[in-house]
Specification:
By secondary structure, the protein is α/β, with parallel strands linked by helices. The chain has helices at residues 3-32, 36-39, and strands spanning 52-61, 73-79, 82-83, 86-94, 102-106, 130-132, 137-138, 149-156, 159-164, 176-181. The protein has a single domain (3-181), classed as Immunoglobulin-like (Sandwich). It has a five-stranded mixed sheet, covered by helices on one side. Strands 3-10-9-5-6 form a five-stranded mixed sheet, with no helix packed on it.
């Protein structure tokens, strides 16, 4: 086998693995999101979460080129989507192939999904109540790598909130969900 044939074989094998991981991610987005199977992708997570636990699944598939005119297939799913007021631990697991992050903000007056994005594809995070974006860790960081988990515990009052990913163009492509605290 020549060196270029061996290299091509490795590339094809990598593409096959990526396809398999994408298919697994699609399976989560088609009815299996938020259950323990999503949590089994990673061995990291909070050992003793405080308050009500909400499992958040971050996923993606399709075109991975970033840009305002590029459609990405990204999703965020939180379960349960309604919780009692008090301490809430959000456990966010990235089952996709891209880096994601997780933020909690008060819901905008115009409704979930209506925040403006800047030329960088990001929203204004100044009203964020908390963030989980540390691979295998708690709180804010540089992003949740594929196959890892991050978490944040917040004390939430009754009201409507928006859960979202603010990696460039992820929010603009629909990576958000409404969330209610009673």
């Amino acid at each position: 086998m020549t060196r270029s044939t061996a290299r091509l074989s490795v590339i094809i094998g990598s593409i096959g693995l990526l396809s398999l991981l994408t298919i697994a991610g699609v399976g989560f987005t088609q009815g299996h999101i938020g259950d323990e199977r999503a949590q089994s992708l990673t061995s990291c997570g909070p050992t003793q979460p405080s308050g009500t636990v909400v499992h958040v699944t971050l996923s993606d598939r399709g075109n991975v080129m970033m840009g305002a005119s590029t459609l990405m297939m990204v999703s965020l799913y939180a379960s349960p989507s309604t919780v009692p007021s008090g301490n809430v631990t959000f456990v966010a697991t990235n089952v996709g192939g891209l880096t994601h992050e997780f933020l909690v903000l008060p819901a905008p007056r115009d409704g979930v999904g209506t925040r403006a994005t800047g030329v960088n594809g990001k929203i204004n995070e100044s009203t964020s109540l908390g963030e989980a974006s540390t691979s295998c860790g708690r709180g804010a960081g540089s992003g949740i790598s594929p196959g890892t988990t991050s978490w944040v515990t917040l004390h939430l009052s009754p009201g409507n909130y928006e859960l979202l990913c603010d990696e460039p163009w992820h929010y603009a492509n629909g990576m958000y969900q409404g969330f209610t605290v009673q």
